[in-house]
Amino acid sequence: MSDVNGNGKFLVGIYDDDDVVLKAVKDVKTAGVRIHEVYSPFPIHGLDVALGHPRTRLGIAAFLFGLSGTTTALLLTAYTESFDWPMIVGGKDSYSPIVYVPIIFELTVLFCALGMVGTFLVSNGLGPTVKPLMYDLRTTDNKFAMTIDLSKNTIGEGDIEQILRKSGAAEVNIKQF
Amino acid sequence: MSHVTSAVRTPLVTGGKTYADVTEDISRQVEGKPTRAWTIAFTISVIVLIYGAACVFWTWWEGLGVWGLNKTVGWAWDITNFVWWVGIGHAGTLISAILLLFRQKWRTAVNRAAEAMTIFAVICAASFILMHMGRPWLALWALPLPNTFGSLWVNFKSPLVWDVFAISTYFTVSLVFWYMGLLPDLATIRDRARSKVSRYIYGAFSLGWNGSAKTWARYEYMSLILAGLSTPLVLSVHTIVSFDFATSVIPGWHTTIFPPYFVAGAIFSGFAMVQNLMLIIRVVFKLEDYITLEHIESMNKVITLTGSIVGVAYLTEFFIAWYSGVEYESYAFINRATGPYWWAYWAMMTCNVISPQLFWSRTIRRSIVWTFTLSVVVNIGMWFERFVIIVTSLHRDYLPSSWAMFHPTLFDISDYIFSFGLFFTLFLLFSKFLPVVNMAEVKTVIKSSSEKLPASVSGVAKGERVANPAFNKSVE
After folding, report:
1. What is the Cα–Cα distance from B342 to B347, expressed in whole angstroms?
2. How far, in Å, are B80, B135, B404 from residue B70 at the CA level?
3. CA end-to-end span of chain B
4. N or C: which end of chain B has fewer CB within 10 A?
5. How close B194 gets to chain A, by Cα (Å)?
6. Residues in chain A closer than 8 A to B203 (CB atoms)
7. Same domain, yes or no: A143 and A117
8. More confident residue, B448 or B286
């Protein structure tokens, strides 16, 4: 929910091209401006690194959810087939883990996928009743927006606007939440 | 830099499309009124669905006796149709997951519709599971529920229970993968929406997506892991479906070659179905610049490869049946090819082994008429493959006094027709209300394709996009 903190004044630089905005991020940062976020209609590789966002830990969540699926499957098969109602089918022991590999695999995948997607939605603050914080409606179409939180910058508004324009912004708008 | 451009490779998107063009071209059919062609197709599908649903209802009301089953052939069209639909459902995940891992960028134009096809095909497959239970209200007995429903738990050693886990996991994960892929595009439509109702509905389904760099980074990471999970998952599903047969002791079923052979066959038939749907979509929605001959050719190559694997599997099976020295096994295969069901066997051989080999010719591979026809032929062949495996293996029992034939009744046929009504109704709803091409992903491949090519091919002069960033200005 990192970018849903809006109760300030933002400068929104609108760019026309993904390569331009990627280079602009570096230029604007070099000029000493703190960038709030960049919004784009599609993923731009290297943008999160350029912005200095920490690497996502979604992988750890996925692994732990997967592990919980494996454990669930092992416990479920062990409890039902060995304790609650032991059964010998096809001459196999009542608990024969090899036969449960499909169950274990499927539950691992299921838990991992659902858990990870859930974590993704929660960590980004996404949900059916969430009102999106759009700095410019065109960023889901063909424009790229770089937003600057003025309250977090010491450089003046006019100077930042100049820096944005120099970096290739086609327009610079003001957005107040 | 993020955009690697090949000077020799033909563009993925033709016509010199800009980002705004992509949004406009794809969103048009979602926002506009339904076309005449769509309305006619949808009406026919719904009529077929209603007729089929009535027949399915009667199947349940009267019992499975309305089918042509007998005590020797206890599985016939129901399981044939089930395996056929599940197989078709494999192409979507192959395109969206395996081709993502292999970084095949052409997948971007077809993955959305292929994944939708996967989901609807799995729904159709599941409907046959419910149908062949005869008493669908007891379907929950297949789930591992506490034994208040009876005295026992489900048998976790049974491939049929593995199937319950595999199919339901596959359906859930495919649905989630597909929906996550839809989020950015739903947000695009939300932000373009003029009416309050569509802004509200697309707004709710886009879950408040705003495309921040942080969200995109996590999104890409999540897609990669989902692809990594879906790849073994899709292979496991048809492997487990094949276990339904392979773990039994019926000659013709008890074969270790089944898992890879079923998976190859599944991808084979799935791609054929994707071809059929895509060839219609690209014309009806005027998407020839996005789904190009290159895409069709690439998919035909996959069809040739998997068709050849299937062909090798047929021959291997036959060879092993003789080489094993097991007389029941040898008999089962000789009976397939020369017995009372010889016509089904040779229909399968012709459609699946011979017809995809025609795609070695570049002219045929790039011909729309040939592709469409051969794709239909492949799916007929793949239906016969399952019919041959199931019915011809069963109709000759160990006891000759039990030998029987299977004759389909009106309800066998109508229940199959039901699944077509269901499939096309769902697919047409999807194609009207959701973007059929993944806009966000197609926008990422535009640059890698249109530059450095002669303007006659790409529609953009050499270096124009680099020299003039304003190229991406909105279209009027």
Report:
1. 8
2. 16, 18, 8
3. 30
4. C
5. 13
6. 131-132
7. no
8. B286
Size of interface A-B (CB pairs under 8 A): 216
Residue B18 with chain A: CB contacts under 8 Å = 142
Share of chain B above pLDDT 70, in %: 91
Stretch 228-247 of chain B: residues touching chain A, C-beta under 8 Å: 229, 232-233, 236, 240, 243
Q: Which fold has domain B19-143+152-445?
A: Formate dehydrogenase/DMSO reductase fold (1.20.1630)
Q: Same domain, yes or no, for A62 and A112?
A: yes
Are residue A74 and residue A100 in the same domain, yes or no?
yes
Q: What's this model's pTM, rounded to 2 decimal places?
A: 0.90
Contact B203, A133 (CB under 8 A): no
**Cα(B266)–Cα(B277) distance, integer angstroms:** 17
Chain B hits for A45, CB-CB cut-off 8 Å, are 2
For residue A4, being part of any structural domain is answered with no
Q: Is the pLDDT of residue A120 over 90?
A: yes
User: How is residue A80 written in tokens?
Assistant: 């039902």
Q: Which two tokens stand for residue B75?
A: 């599985």
Alpha-carbon distance of A109 to A118, in angstroms, equals 14
Report the number of secondary-structure helices (H) and strands (E) in chain B: 20, 0
Q: Please state the separation of Cα A173 from the chain's center in Å.
A: 26
Q: Contact B154/A100 with Cβ under 8 angstroms?
A: no
Dihedral angle over CA of B273, B279, B281, B285, nearest 10:
180
Q: Edge-to-edge strands of the sheet including A9-15?
A: A37-39, A144-149, A9-15, A171-176
Residue-wise pLDDT for B244-253, tens only, equals: 999 988 998 9
Strands (E), A81-166: 144-149
Location of structure tokens 């997951």: B97
Distance CA B129, CA B204 (A): 33
